[in-house]
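If you are new to this repository, start here. Below is one unmodified record pulled from the training split, so you can see the exact layout before writing a loader.
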Amino acid sequence: MEIVRTVLVTGGNRGIGFAIAEEFLASGYRVAVTARSGEGPTGTLTVRADVTDSSSLDLAIAEVEEKLGPIEVLVANAGITKDTLLLRMTDQEFEDVVNTNLNGVFRVIKRVTRGMLKQKFGRIILIGSVVGLLGSAGQVNYSATKSALVGMARSITREIGGKNITANVVAPGFIDTDMTAELTTELADSYRARIPAGRFASPQEVAKVVRFMASEEAGYISGAVIPVDGGLGMGH
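And here is the target side for that same chain:
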């Protein structure tokens, strides 16, 4: 029987993060989500935090630990996009995405791993993207941050992998969310044509993979990139 554990999902108030929080809740976990605005699923603890603001993270994590206990599973999901072609991309657009999608992940991991070491158990799951290894025109900033998560997970594995702590990247492809709903029919059809599965995934399909990666059964998987992309990346 699965041990009940405490999970923190960053950016758990919408899209994939919301679905991940719902999946963990349905599986009996104690679930907290960070959000700058809005709320996580009913039954979760929502704490206000911005991953670019260290002091807000300190307060949020302290609140989670006080109310739900030590954080044993971290799902680093919070992220932003500022897509534009390289020659039009400003320094600020690049730096903002890096500060949230990469620096923000580091800030959260650093704050929860101490507790994981004390508990002698930890699951660090970084939400990457197929474009982290495949690349994507107009996403130099975003793809760079998602690629960097792979090196981060593998370095963490080499540092503390012997302490019953795993670190992996789950890399979704095109998912049915508010973001893809804004695509024109023509553009959405062109993206689907590139996907061997012929469709976008549901957020729940990503959530179920994330939940497995947090389980006891996944304890010997670390430093891996788990694609949930319908075959789009083919390991890239």
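Two things worth knowing about this chain: The two ends are 35 Å apart (CA to CA). The mean pLDDT is 95.
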